[in-house]
Amino acid sequence: MEIPGYRKRTTTVDNRGQMTELRDYYDSSSYLATGLFYDSYGNCDSIVYPGGSYFAYEYDAAIHTFQVRVTDAFGHYSQSLDYDYRFGIPLRVKDKSGHYMYYTLDQFGRTTEICAPKEQEVFHAIALVDTASVLLAIGDTNLATKLPISMGDFALLGGIQLSSHEIIPVRKEYTVKYVYRRGNVADNIPYSAITYNYDPANAGGNITTYTYSDGLGRIIQTKKDAEVNGEKVLVVSGKTYYDAFGRTVKTKYPTIENRTLAVVSVGNAMATPIVIGDLVNIAVIRPYGNLVLSTVQDTVPPSITMYDILDRPLVQRAPDNTEVRYQYGFGVDAGNGTVIRNCTLFRTSVTDQRNHTSITLANVAAIQGTSRRT
Question: Which class for 5: exposed (0-12), middle (13-18), buried (19 or more C-beta within 10 A)?
Answer without folding.
Answer: exposed
